[in-house]
Amino acid sequence: MSEPRKTPLYERHVELGGRIVDFAGWWLPVQYAGILEEHRAVREQAGLFDVSHMGEIRVVGTDAEAFVQKMFTNELATLQSGKVRYSPMCYPTGGTVDDVLIYRLALSEFLLVVNAGNKDKDFSWLLENAAGFDVSITDESAETAEIALQGPAAAAIMGKLSGSAPSQLAYYEFLPQHELAGLAVLISRTGYTGEDGFEIYCKPAEAAIIWVALLEAGKEHGLQPAGLGCRDTLRFEASMPLYGHELSADISPLEAGLAKFVSFDKIDFNGREALLRQQEMGPKRKLVGFEMIGRGVARSGYLVLLNDQKIGSVTSGSFAPALGKNLGMALVDREAVMVGTKIEIEIREKLVEAQVIKKPFYRRK
Of the four, 87, 108, 160, 201, which is 20 to 30 A from 356 by CA? Predict the structure, then answer.
């Protein structure tokens, strides 16, 4: 096993008292002041995340559009320059390689932002499928740092350092070259917390300058540095999928409730036939949300039962700080449950009562 890598902001995390853990081969802070406090800051003011571990892959060439159309389930021919689109990337079996953000930089140029733990696999998969396409595929992860500013105060904080342009971006739009703290960066408005927010992509050598400038600009807005712990509880409350939990090589986008990101209007894409069969027959499994009625927190992998029969397993479970409840998501037999159904979760060899509820658990006002 090789030593985990350090992001360009590692020293800043140590200085701020971050509790460092190995995450997907990177040393990253799981928390600073505490997960609950950081979670609350993002919901009510703003939080600052180091997400430099994420992967960035550039696709350029005459066939770039045709290539991404083939590789991703979502429709990308209609994606305009300056806009972002979310899409699963599938195997021919319909299982998920990864879920990715696709930035259209130009007519024949795309930036793919992929999950850290999947980056090498994704890059290899893209290269493997590039035969016959006039494209150049480049892994730019090592030359790219990423900082995420999330929360209701995010736009006000960004405005202090980069003017009004970022706050004028619509959701899932980006500025390819914009000045922030005197540096030229790419700024997008997406997010993985259920709140408003921005991503700043910059050179690794510039990351610390931007990080410090944002923290300073955000002082009067209650901005706090935030770790991986609250990043997970925030995305969980917003019922956003996490690869390896709600999505995997064995879980299709249709089973994960992501049908709106699968465009069967496209003539061809990897996994289309398998997914079309699944849609026509109805997926055998579906992702549901649930609230614990009995005492206990459901964790990933715990069994879900109905009338003493196993019907699936928990994909993610946690205390939801903004809601004050123990909640979970589970992949279960499609016909077994609907909203309101009482189920049981096996927690440490005991069956604990829960009830199926609607997702997402949290929506910002």
Answer: 87
- Residues whose CB falls within 8 Å of the CB of residue 162, separated by 6 or more in sequence, listed in order: 178, 179, 180, 181, 187
* pTM over cut 0.90: yes
Identify whether the C-beta of residue 284 lies closer than 8 Å to the C-beta of residue 333.
yes
Q: What SS3 state is found at 120? A: helix
Residues shown for the chain: 365
Please compute, for residue 299, the number of CA atoms within 13 A of its CA located in the half-sphere on the CB side: 3
Q: How far is residue 236's CA from residue 300's CA, in Å, rounded to a whole number?
A: 12
Give dist(CA 303, CA 294) in Å, integer. Answer: 15
CA-based angle 95:100:104, to the nearest 5?
A: 135
CA proximity to 8, closest of 143, 103, 119, 134: 143
Domain extent at residue 78: 55-137
- The whole-number pLDDT of residue 297 equals 97
Give the whole-angstrom CA distance, residue 276 versus residue 274.
Answer: 5
Q: Residue 183 belongs to a domain with what CATH number?
A: 3.30.1360.120
Q: Compute the average pLDDT of residues 297-326.
A: 97
Nearest to 178 by CA among 188, 190, 191, 187: 187
pLDDT in tens, 132-155: 999 999 999 999 999 999 999 999
Whether the pLDDT of residue 1 is over 80: the answer is no
- Beta bridge partners of residue 306, listed in sequence order: 309
Question: Rounded CA gap, 239 and 17, in Å?
Answer: 29
User: Are residues 28 and 152 located together in one domain of the fold?
Assistant: yes
pLDDT for 362 equals 97
List, for residues 65-100, the tens digit of each pLDDT value: 999 999 999 999 999 999 999 999 999 999 999 999
What the block records as the tokens of 77 is 């021919």
